[in-house]
Design goal:
about 120 residues; mainly alpha; globular
Length: about 120
């Protein structure tokens, strides 16, 4: 049985997505002016409920690094997230790590809107 050769490089769809992300990343960096957008985003968009109270306390315990170093997809690319500016936040190292460590259905980062799961509706 003869094997097919593996496809080399990235697909055209992936190349187009990456190019789109590079353009969006520039606009996000311009919007943030290099300052972490996590606190502004959460406090501006927070829907106060008993569930978000605990998540907010966990979030506030994260020491913000102030300088934004990661453009974060709220709905991850691997879960169908787009490069729309509303899906992107410029985050410091600490908040970026926190968003990834505490994301998922019903998890703190999702309750605060910093992360969205596949199938989860965006209400912001």
């Amino acid at each position: 049985m003869q094997r097919k050769a593996m496809k080399q490089g990235r697909s055209q769809k992936r190349v187009a997505y990456d190019e789109e992300f590079a353009e969006a990343k520039f606009l996000v960096k311009e919007r943030s002016k290099g300052v972490c957008e996590a606190a502004t985003f959460v406090l501006y968009n927070l829907h106060r409920t008993p569930e978000t109270a605990e998540a907010l306390q966990m979030f506030l315990d994260v020491p913000c690094g102030f300088h934004a170093v990661h453009v974060h997809h709220r709905k991850y690319r691997s879960r169908g997230g787009s490069n729309q500016l509303s899906n992107l936040n410029d985050l410091c190292e600490a908040h970026h790590s926190w968003a990834h460590a505490h994301g998922g259905f019903g998890e703190p980062a999702n309750l605060l809107g910093l992360s969205l799961s596949a199938g989860e509706l965006e209400v912001w």
